[in-house]
């Protein structure tokens, strides 16, 4: 069960894993995620299903090393078993022919953006994608996004690839030259906050896919709660996609920082242990 | 033979008669109720050892001899699954501990669990002759139940129930809490091929992720799960029915009947200002991090907040478990904030007593109205309002009323909200034809526990809302009997 079938590095820190999970492959829709745990000491973390192959009975996850848990996942090799994998979770993306779509992906947010772009394109939309990252080596899945987009703009903070500037600058460029019917925004919290402000300024309906802290992913704990339109919602069951203009991003960012100190400590400890193991 | 005839016949057994004659009732009633041996409060409050260490055989025999083996054993009517209480107690008195365990298992699939977590003071013990007629402390039926069940577990002579020859009929159980486990056991006995599908990566439901180790060690639950495995029950974890596969998918795979025991796992919040501050979390999150994810042990990746001043909102078992967990995580000051008084607390009396002994502060007749955060969005204070009890409401409980102008501020760096749970909606949402109440519980026929969809039965918290282990277990058994009936009729057709 849940064997790693293939592994691909997009960069040193971004890995794509194809994992055996026939039931999930069959049931999943764009926008769904899974909870993953590696090893008996592992933590459960949410990861968006990037693509799935029903015939092969596999799903593909794209993972960026950010903490101890994502690191453990990226260290899985072909043939390894994922200890626990459960899903598909969350509400699927609402897909229809809106007209012209502005798809905005920041950093590793491009991974969950890919299946949405794919579905929206299939539904007949014109898709313009803006993908952004700090620098060239953090731009992922560009070719795959291109395959399903009518146009792709790449932005890097340091100008090492594509255009120099923030994602919002790339978005403004598109918005200023053509009518956008719907925007999709996925990425780090701070990027989503400003991307949402940009589309709000231009009255473009927008959805954002949120990546909060989760424990179970099934609505059981409330760790993932956010305020949307003044109401508390659970990202794992009510989301992960919400009206980007209604999300209280400041609260979300604050809540994301809640366990940051622990996470840095855990990662340092883990690195120490694995280094020592390497020595022995 | 109806139940009372059966009880009479059992009571008339020669050994029971001899025991009754062996001691005068006066002698029996003059004995004092046994005190449960406990780990000392200050020691246990910093560790996860089980608080109650269990009766010794001598203590158990002595306590069992207090029972006068009433002609009309009122205790039984207080037990939701009608354990033949005098029969198991008298078996303890005569030293037949394994026999006593067998009597428990006639009706209770999880006696080692129930002996620890049942609210006996509201059930069997509330209806004991001692309590009703003598107004003294009842026979410690719960302690004795635990004693017999533990004795059996430790003896290595666990009787694995006989399983009928396989009838080849597949049935699926959704959720592995006490309702699902009890259902599975009975269906396996009848020869069904039983598969339990569980959303989490552990089997046991609340028994594992909710109730802490110091009250119900996981190893106790694991023994029961192991017995089911030996009876041929199959378990599949990481399987969310309604997401991973639908009931329709499972029907296609050949499952003929479904029992939904998916529990009431959704935490409620109070919707007061500041509830989403960092450091304010549900008891489910708090307990899950510790009990399911092991966050308090070395080397586990899952973190948990370790507050110095922890306030827990609520007065149920979940609140007591949370507040005592906070102590064990090293908190310096821990408080319960509850809007009614001590008498109305729904928690087991023993848990309240243990919490008090361990140094938990009880702010009863108090209610939080706002959480106040620091500049980083982390909770630092609670605005609390004093309450008084008004007229009794429809449930007979006196409802709390806020005292005007009584608000004050207390410090807290962690707040655990434990004000109740709602039914888990994942499965009902995947079945639009399924009848649910406006609270989200599944509607069932009270006698058969059959839902509005004929091949789906349901029980436990998903039907009752947050209830108890024993009621969930009883539902599982009842549903097994009626599903068996239903499937037998189906195959006859
Ligand atoms: C902290 C705490 C302390 C408690 N203390 C006591 C006590 O002392 N005494 C007492 O009598 N009661 C106590 N209770 C209440 C008692 O635990 C519950 O009433 C009882 O566990 C309900 O059993 P259940 O089988 O209905 O559901 P649960 O034990 O809740 O189990 C349901 C299971 O179903 C799974 N599930 C849900 N949806 C799906 C799905 N779609 N597919 C697959 N699996 C699914 C869940 O993950 C869960 O494991 C306590 C509860 C809590 C939370
Ligand atoms: S009511 Fe009390 S004394 Fe009478 S049979 Fe039951 S446990 Fe024994
Ligand atoms: S992750 Fe637990 S409720 Fe959403």
TrEMBL record, chain A:
Binds 1 FAD per subunit. Its cofactor is FAD; [2Fe-2S] cluster. Pfam families: DHODB_Fe-S_bind (PF10418). Keywords: 2Fe-2S, FAD, Flavoprotein, Iron, Iron-sulfur, Metal-binding. [2Fe-2S] cluster binds at residues 221, 224, 236. It comes from the Bacteria. GO terms for biological process: pyrimidine nucleotide biosynthetic process. GO terms for molecular function: 2 iron, 2 sulfur cluster binding; flavin adenine dinucleotide binding; metal ion binding; oxidoreductase activity. Residues 1-95 form the FAD-binding FR-type domain. FAD binds at residues 62-64. Coiled coil: none annotated. The keyword Nucleus does not apply. NCBIfam families: PRK06222.1. This is Ferredoxin--NADP+ reductase. The lineage of its organism: Bacteria, Pseudomonadati, Bacteroidota, Bacteroidia, Marinilabiliales.
Automatic annotation (TrEMBL), chain B:
It comes from the Bacteria. Gene3D superfamilies: Alpha-helical ferredoxin, FAD/NAD(P)-binding domain. InterPro entries: 4Fe4S_Fe-S-bd, DPD_II, FAD/NAD-bd_sf, FAD/NAD-binding_dom, Helical_ferredxn, SudA-like. GO terms for molecular function: iron-sulfur cluster binding; oxidoreductase activity. Residues 57-91 form the 4Fe-4S ferredoxin-type domain. This is Glutamate synthase (NADPH/NADH) small chain. The lineage of its organism: Bacteria, Pseudomonadati, Bacteroidota, Bacteroidia, Marinilabiliales.
């Amino acid at each position: 069960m849940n064997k790693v079938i293939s592994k691909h590095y997009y960069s040193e820190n971004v890995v794509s894993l194809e994992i055996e999970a026939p039931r999930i492959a069959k049931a999943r829709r764009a926008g769904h995620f899974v909870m993953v745990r590696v090893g008996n000491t592992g933590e459960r973390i949410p990861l968006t299903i990037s693509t799935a192959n029903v015939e092969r009975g596999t799903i593909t996850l794209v993972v960026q090393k950010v903490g101890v848990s994502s690191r453990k996942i990226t260290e899985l090799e072909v043939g390894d078993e994922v200890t626990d994998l459960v899903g598909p979770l969350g509400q699927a993306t609402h897909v229809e022919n809106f007209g012209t779509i502005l798809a905005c992906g920041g950093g590793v947010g491009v991974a969950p953006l890919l299946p949405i772009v794919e579905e929206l394109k299939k539904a007949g939309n014109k898709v313009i994608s803006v993908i952004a990252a700090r620098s060239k080596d953090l731009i992922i899945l560009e070719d795959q996004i291109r395959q399903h987009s009518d146009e792709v703009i790449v932005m890097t903070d340091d100008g090492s690839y594509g255009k120099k500037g923030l994602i919002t600058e790339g978005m403004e460029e598109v918005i200023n030259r053509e009518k956008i019917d719907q925007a999709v925004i996925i990425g780090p919290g701070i990027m989503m906050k400003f991307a949402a402000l940009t589309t709000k300024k231009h009255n473009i309906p927008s959805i954002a896919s949120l990546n909060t802290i989760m424990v179970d992913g099934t609505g059981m704990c409330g760790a993932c709660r956010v305020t949307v339109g003044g109401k508390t919602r659970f990202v794992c069951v009510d989301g992960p996609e919400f009206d980007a203009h209604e999300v209280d991003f400041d609260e979300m960012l604050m809540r994301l920082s809640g366990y940051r100190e622990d996470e840095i400590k855990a990662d340092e400890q883990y690195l120490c242990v694995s280094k020592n193991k390497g020595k022995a | 033979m109806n139940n009372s005839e059966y009880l009479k016949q059992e009571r008339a057994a020669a050994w029971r008669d001899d025991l009754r004659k062996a001691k005068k009732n006066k002698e029996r009633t003059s004995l004092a109720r046994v005190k449960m041996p406990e780990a000392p409060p200050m020691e246990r409050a910093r560790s996860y050892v089980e608080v109650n260490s269990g009766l010794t055989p001598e203590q158990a025999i002595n306590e069992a001899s207090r029972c006068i083996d009433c002609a009309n054993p009122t205790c039984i009517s207080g037990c939701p699954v009608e354990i033949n209480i005098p029969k198991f107690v008298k078996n303890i008195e005569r030293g037949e501990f394994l026999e006593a365990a067998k009597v428990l298992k006639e009706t209770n699939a999880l006696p080692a669990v129930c002996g620890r977590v049942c609210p006996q003071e509201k059930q069997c013990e509330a209806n004991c002759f001692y309590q009703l007629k003598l107004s003294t402390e009842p026979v410690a039926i719960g302690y004795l139940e635990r004693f017999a069940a533990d004795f059996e577990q430790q003896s290595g002579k666990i009787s694995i129930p006989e399983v009928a020859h396989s009838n080849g009929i597949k049935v699926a159980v959704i959720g592995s809490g006490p309702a699902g486990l009890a259902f599975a056991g009975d269906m396996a006995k009848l020869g069904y091929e039983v598969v339990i599908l569980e959303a989490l990566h552990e089997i046991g439901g609340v028994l594992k992720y909710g109730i802490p180790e110091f009250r119900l060690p996981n190893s106790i639950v694991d023994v029961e799960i192991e017995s089911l495995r030996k009876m041929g029950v199959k378990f599949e974890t990481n399987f969310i029915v309604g997401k991973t596969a639908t009931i329709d998918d499972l029907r296609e795979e050949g499952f003929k009947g479904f029992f939904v025991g998916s529990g009431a796992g959704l935490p409620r919040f109070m919707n007061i200002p500041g509830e989403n501050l960092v450091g304010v979390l549900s008891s489910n999150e708090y307990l899950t991090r510790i009990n399911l994810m092991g966050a308090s042990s070395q080397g586990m990746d899952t973190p948990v907040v370790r507050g110095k001043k922890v306030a827990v909102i609520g007065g149920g078992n979940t609140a007591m478990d949370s507040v005592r967990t906070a102590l064990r995580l090293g908190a310096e000051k821990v408080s319960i904030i509850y809007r009614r008084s001590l008498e109305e607390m729904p928690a087991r009396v023993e848990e309240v007593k243990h919490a008090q002994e361990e140094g938990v502060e009880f702010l009863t007749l108090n209610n939080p109205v706002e959480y106040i955060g620091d500049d980083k969005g982390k909770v630092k204070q609670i605005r609390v309002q004093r309450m008084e009890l008004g007229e009794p409401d429809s449930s007979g409980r006196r409802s709390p009323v806020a005292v005007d102008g009584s608000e004050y501020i207390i410090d807290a760096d962690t707040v655990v909200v434990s004000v109740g749970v709602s039914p888990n909606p994942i499965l009902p949402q995947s079945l639009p034809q399924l009848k649910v109440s406006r609270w989200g519980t599944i509607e069932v026929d009270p006698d058969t526990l059959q839902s509005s969809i004929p091949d789906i039965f349901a029980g436990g918290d998903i039907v009752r809302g947050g209830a108890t282990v024993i009621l969930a277990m009883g539902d599982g058994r009842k549903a097994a009997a009626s599903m068996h009936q239903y499937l037998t009729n189906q195959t006859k057709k």
